[in-house]
């Protein structure tokens, strides 16, 4: 069966550069060269005098019947490119692709997912290469990534990492639960060990004093009525579900112990991801041109004085490839070119919403507000019980330590075992109150800083809801400079999803178009 391996390289320059497509494959047999779908793409960045250019290189191994299947794709080493991506980046990229209708630009993904531009580009390239996505090129050189409806299934079938991730998440959840249960159970176990040993020592002392009486041993003289099955109640993994279903309140005792000592985790977990999503969507919805004051409610400001210096906006410029620009009145505005071109249909924007726009955001979000840390989510009664048991354990450890020092006879049996692990019991009893004490000071300091940042953001929102004349003029200037270009199918001049010879354009005419654009710039 005859076969051929063909390759093609073309360069695309946004707006101001020319573009060319090779008219012949680098190597081919006597059969024609059909390019069906993107299988492997590498987009290197080459710096030129004016703007960076994007090159796309794809290779397809084709059998004698002219069909191309994913299994026949020629890729270096057969590596699944998506597995090289961080799980969080891949998931956020795929969510953005779905929201945008599986046809996106790099800017669309960056704004919807809150990712950096280079992270978005690498993720799109990797997912497209593994899921049989394809490229579309507009008449102005914009590169779009399009994906089939079943791209998730294709990606999951190739990626071993995606298959085991759900199992790893479940294992992580179980491990976290076991840690909480183990620490809470250790308090009960410590109390039992300590007071059982104290009673054993006291019982042994009484035996030595009553020499005339019948000698009693620890096993026969002391009976502790405790069944190990009593601990299974504490290890019930479905306690939370039953508590919610039965309408119960409060927290399971074992969870209360862990919550009192270590807290309940960061209340702002995932808030950074949400912050960058909001910033990206706000910039994109305003035509890619904003003022620093508009982004202040999303950023970390300790006071309003910091608004006099626009340096706080630098992280946004770095993440979304923004650049400062001065308008005719001398106002400094910030343009984000990559967020001005989109494959997602949008509604026309208007100038009139300068104050109303932020009134809407304030009603919906109240401003980007950080949650304050809680020392513990336990109730008053639960906390009192935990503190009481912790104090009882500490008292028992201190008492047992004194008794072990005063023993004249070398301990044996059960007492000897407890004596060997007594340093661990001391550490547990001491840290049970030391860790919460240190954590309390940390929570107070952190909440003070969060409160200052929230107040500064709220003041920024209030200033945007009712802007003074200079700020209003600045905002209106940003709206005038806003530009959001929708790239529809009618503007696509090349698609790697179709045969190369079936593209309905002439190469010379395409070169001529780019030259005209370059002259106009």
Overall average pLDDT: 75
What is the helix content?
40-55%
Mind describing the biggest β-sheet? 4 strands, antiparallel
**How many strand segments?**
13
Structural class: alpha+beta
- Along the chain, the helix and strand elements come as EEEEHEHHEEHHHHHHEHHEEEHHHHHEEH
Shape: elongated
Sheet-strand content, in percent, reads 5-15%
Strand-helix topology:
Layout: E1 4-12, E2 20-21, E3 45-46, E4 53-62, H1 87-99, E5 103-104, H2 106-113, H3 117-130, E6 134-138, E7 143-146, H4 151-158, H5 160-209, H6 218-221, H7 239-245, H8 253-262, H9 271-285, E8 289-290, H10 292-295, H11 314-320, E9 323-326, E10 332-335, E11 341-342, H12 354-365, H13 380-406, H14 414-420, H15 422-465, H16 469-481, E12 485-486, E13 492-495, H17 507-520
Parallel strand pairs: 11-12
Antiparallel strand pairs: 1-2, 1-4, 3-4, 5-7, 6-7, 6-13, 8-10, 9-10
